[in-house]
What does this fold into?
Amino acid sequence: MDKNYFVYILLTERGTYYCGYTDDVQKRFKKHCEGKAAKYTRANKPVKIVYTKEFETKQEAMKEEARIKALSRIEKIKLINSV
It folds into this structure.
């Protein structure tokens, strides 16, 4: 069975955004909240998941993650609000 992958954006306590990819968004969010997922989210505690998009392959998800990370804050907000 093939698993799908997701790109996600988290809102942090400081009002910043963190983007990542995973095959299980809720499990990954829990890891971020526990401070066990990424250096950035250890210093900037996540508050909630504000965006997710599903992909059939890991490569597609990674490509979209890189695209989103290159966006400005305003562009990220527009993306989040477009859902």
